[in-house]
Amino acid sequence: MNDAWIGLLGVLAGVVISSLAEASKSKYAFRREKGWSLIDEERRRLEMIYEAVEEVREAYDRSFRPIFTGLVTGRRPGAGEDGPAVPWARLRMLVNLYRPSLLPQLQQVEKAGPEFGAAIAEAIMDHTGEPQRDDYLVSKMTVASDKLATAVVQMRDAIVEESRALDTAAAKLIGPTQA
Fold it and tell me: Contact at 8 Å (CB) between 117 and 148?
């Protein structure tokens, strides 16, 4: 009878150990998959912020081009035309909700955007129709445009840096690989 009990206890111990190993493996797999899901969501949010900052830049560029062309050709620049809406609310919301670490870059873009808008407005109001005399307006707009472009590039670089940090986090979820 002792042999029977020993055999039975051996089988039960094997079942318990196998069950614990499987539970541990399942728990680890769940955590890894959840980690992947969270990283994918963070990446999606970064992509939305990237798109929003590009939309801000494009909105200012679409306003800039016809006015610039009008100034250098002597035509009335942008008379009576409304420029495209700048999606400030969307960009602010995305950064404040999902990536507050990008607030310093957002502040630079928010500062440069209205300065560029003011230079565009001044060009519309003060143009003379003579390209040589309006050269200072072109210069002001170009400087303001460059300032906005620099702020946007810095924000894009920060977004890319955060995306690379997500890649590192994702690689850690995989664990060490053998070559």
Answer: no
Contact at 8 Å (CB) between 125 and 79?
no
Burial environment of residue 56 by CB neighbours within 10 A (0 to 12, 13 to 18, 19 or more) = buried
Helices 2-73/103-126 angle, 10° precision:
20
Residue 154: per-residue pLDDT: 97
Tell me which residue has tokens 């969270």: 38
**Looking at the chain, how many residues does it have?**
179
- Helix, coil or strand: residue 162: helix
User: What are the structural domains of the chain?
Assistant: 34-174 (1.20.120)
H or E element that contains 176: none
Vertex 160: Cα angle to 43 and 100 (nearest 5): 70
Query: Would you give the DSSP letter of residue 3?
Result: H
Give pLDDT tens digits for 68-97. Answer: 887 887 777 654 456 678 899 999 999 999
In this structure, the dihedral spanned by the alpha carbons of residues 69, 74, 76 and 78, taken in order and rounded to 10 degrees, is 10
> What's this model's pTM, rounded to 2 decimal places?
0.76
> Which three-class secondary structure state does DSSP give residue 42?
helix
Give me the DSSP letters along 51-120: HHHHHHHHHHHHHHHHHHHHHHHTSPTTTTPPPPPP-HHHHHHHHHHH-GGGHHHHHHHHHHHHHHHHHH
